[in-house]
Amino acid sequence: MSDRNEILVVSFGTASAESRRLNIDAVEQAISEAAGESWSVRRCFTSQTIINLISKREGIRTDNVADALEKAAAEGVNNLVVQPTHLMKGLEYDKLCSILADYADSFGKVTICDPLLTSEEDLDRVADALAEASASYEDGSTALVFMGHGSEAAANSIYDKMQSVLNSKGKSDYFIGTVEAEPSLDDVIKAVGEGNYKRVVLRPLMLVAGNHAVKDMASADDPDSWFSRFSAEGYETVCIIEGLGQLPDVRDIYADHAYKAITSLRDQL
Hints:
This protein has 269 residues and is α/β, with parallel strands linked by helices.
């Protein structure tokens, strides 16, 4: 087996070419720069639906996890670092670990990195990144609302932890909710209603500003969207369609996770 080193960056994916460029491409570039020239970077997506859409619309073939691992093994990769761009160790992360287990014997060394929100340091750094990105809206009468995806897994508690970190930093005008779990939109509307706010600024708490951001959060045509619900409550509502991957400090966290794994592998060689 060769001494070839590779980082497999695993994302859910997005069918928006612009969002891919601004978020996923940017994260992969940050990881590549941190890893150095002796490590190549390979992309794969976990959503086959998105993979198929990209192929149909753009004629671009994107590997799923199994295909990417098959190719890496066939090309003689020995040391493999897997960096998921997921936010937490939820169901998607568990599925990834299960697939990797089937390929454990295909490589000399395999290690999987932490998702974005794993350690207390991660939470602290992301909270600071959110605050820096939203500072211009802090005027005492604006609520900053971040929309996460949510998960049925126990890892969903990471949203409450992030809220606690923001509160500890004095960001009492910051609120976190989820599309598919708790805190729900109703929970957030209630919490915001307990303050004296005139304006609500909505941002996705997701790597990319994809379908959830455009439809569930920002759609003016859907009466159940976050934009429509807050507007119906009488708030001036502003939507920022930007993924977390557009924040340099967030990209640095992913890059640091990958570099930590690389360093650990080097120590084992």
